[in-house]
Amino acid sequence: MDEAIERLQRIASLRRGVLALGGGLPAPELFPREALARAFDDALATPRCEALQYGWPEGRSDLRAWIARRLRARGADVHARDVVITAGAQQAIAVACEALLVRGARVGVDAETYPAALELFRTRGATPVVARDVAVRYVMPGIANPRGDALSSDARAVILASSRAIIADEAYAELRFDGARERPLLADAPERVWHVGTFSKSLCPGFRVGWLVPPRAELARVRRIKHDIDLQANSLGQAVLAALLRRFDVDAHLARAAALYRARAERFARALRASLPSFRFRDPEGGFSIFVETDAGGDDARFLEIATAHGIGFDPGRIFRASQRSSPIALRLCFSAVRDDLLDVAVERLARAWRAFAARRTHGDVGVRNAAGASSRRRHD
Amino acid sequence: MDEAIERLQRIASLRRGVLALGGGLPAPELFPREALARAFDDALATPRCEALQYGWPEGRSDLRAWIARRLRARGADVHARDVVITAGAQQAIAVACEALLVRGARVGVDAETYPAALELFRTRGATPVVARDVAVRYVMPGIANPRGDALSSDARAVILASSRAIIADEAYAELRFDGARERPLLADAPERVWHVGTFSKSLCPGFRVGWLVPPRAELARVRRIKHDIDLQANSLGQAVLAALLRRFDVDAHLARAAALYRARAERFARALRASLPSFRFRDPEGGFSIFVETDAGGDDARFLEIATAHGIGFDPGRIFRASQRSSPIALRLCFSAVRDDLLDVAVERLARAWRAFAARRTHGDVGVRNAAGASSRRRHD
């Protein structure tokens, strides 16, 4: 990614007094801290203390069985042996890329999608394109980033009609506001779907525990790749999760989470429509964010710079775009980790920043200063 | 790796009653469980609960500062900003490979070395060779796997005399029995040493927390690679470690660990010399293992199969060899995680297995049956 953007995002997320609407972070008040403390005690109390020792490349069998059960309940023929635990969804996508992509390959994506997947494709020498004649299709069924929309049945049919490999990233699939769980693509094309999931959005990102269900014929290769890249997912997070899941009601937790995010989305959307009527967006059906589009030209990094000075941060639209275009200006606004009483404040600041940006555009200042200094990656999923 | 070998190693490590001398596992009785339980409580009690949230690709700054301080104390000019936290040493090596290796490259290694690094080089399309005209040198200074020997000053001088990039894997460097800490290679060639370290051997593998200190000019690229492959190392393990290190005396812990491993090494070596006088090995100077060489031809996988039937497992020599040769038979024996009262039992079983193997070799049964069935990666570091 553009190093100037990274630097601006770091500033926005670290500077005191800046309300960060970037990053795709879950609400920390949803973290089940007490249940986790008990789970940690349980995990450390086992005789062999697997939580602290090496494990196998494919991960803990109880965790894999839990993941498989939930996928079976949605119609997929998945068993524990089909699941490989990864360091979050990002590593699951990276492993699929390593198995699927050659340099120069075209990866089919939505016009806007998960930025770290786009970056990964590009650094692997592949090109993300909005097209059908591609080697691999990357899609976020369930709920897509950044719009928070569900995959339509038409789009689903088109994706399944082709014979290409599909990376199906379900990072947000369990955070639909209506609680619906679609049949996973995996259920209909198990021989070419690389199914990706994670606990990062539904429980806690800090575990870095996700999963990949590759086509069965690719399992041995996937375990080999996983072993090559880091031996195994961290045993501590896996053990604590496994202990937690033995007595924690995940579905009740997901219902609480969906209710909280839905309420925030509605309040945030109302405030946006009132204060920023020129912003176009659809109400999200799930997930953490609203994707706003505008008719304004100019540079989204410049707007981010101005917004940060007004005490508000966001993710600039260009990082979600397969085209990488910065204009017309778009922005992803994550309501997920903003306290309820600050949602209106966030929108007020954004509106002030937008007016300031518009005034400067009128006066010809449309460039972004080249941000020098530290280059570093963003914090995002 | 050979799938037959993997399968045999899994059987050896999982079958009840088999004493596993493979795997490079630390002694679980050294895990500081009580201090970790307090550290977990501390990590969860912070207002923002960073332990459960996303972090930055380079990792926690307090942890990076701690690592940098220890390297500075050994003579290297390293600061927190130079350190990138990784998912163990294996990922640090994998990141260095991604930055350094092109397909067809030759990587200079010792004749026997860490198997997962050899595998990684091979699957990346590089060839590990025992030679000087190579693109990159991989070395384990401090204490090398599998022999547990320290890098001689002559070998060190030869490595530093060349101008090639060096991956310096210090996984075992803090587990020298004499407590000595050499000046890291990084201190003498910071512009081309990729320094690799980990908490896996010195504290607990379950965290999957290690580090990479790349040349400064490569830092931005390394952070980008790290972000691409899994966004960041797990926050939970990092937070618990950071909390632990604030009040845990690591040097006292390392002294206890070195004393325990030294005592096990000495007892194990004595028993080996008494029961298996044809086994050749040097007493290790640190680490977890003894590397045994023999004059016997045949197949080390066949010997492993027989040994497992006699209730003893080990790591066959071929996996450590750059040449991948299975003959003459060699074996790595890890004494690290075997209870003191079982060390002699382990050697007795090994001796019985060796006699049985020798008897079969005399009768012409030197092949290994092709192990069918599940293919999977080994548990090893």
Summarize the structure.
With about 375 residues, chain A is an alpha/beta fold. The first copy, chain A, has twelve helices and twelve strands. In chain A, the strands form three sheets. Chain A has a seven-stranded mixed sheet, with helices on both faces. In chain A, strands 9-12-11 form a three-stranded antiparallel sheet, with helices on one face.
Describe the overall structure.
2 copies of one chain form a homodimer. By secondary structure, the first copy, chain A, is α/β, with parallel strands linked by helices. Chain A has helices at residues 3-14, 33-44, 61-73, 88-100, 115-123, 153-161, 185-188, 219-230, 235-247, 250-275, 300-309, 343-362, and strands spanning 19-20, 84-86, 106-108, 127-129, 136-139, 165-169, 193-198, 210-213, 289-293, 312-313, 315-316, 330-334. The first copy, chain A, has 2 domains: 3-30 and 252-362, Aspartate Aminotransferase, domain 1; 33-247, Type I PLP-dependent aspartate aminotransferase-like (Major domain) (Aspartate Aminotransferase, domain 2). Helices cover 40% and strands 12% of the residues of chain A. In chain A, the strands form 3 sheets. The first copy, chain A, has a 7-stranded mixed β-sheet, with helices on both faces. In chain A, strands 9-12-11 form a 3-stranded antiparallel β-sheet, covered by helices on one side. Chain A starts with a helix and ends in a 19-residue tail after the last helix. Chains A and B meet through helix 2, helix 4, helix 5, helix 8 and helix 9 of A and helix 2, helix 4, helix 5, helix 8 and helix 9 of B.
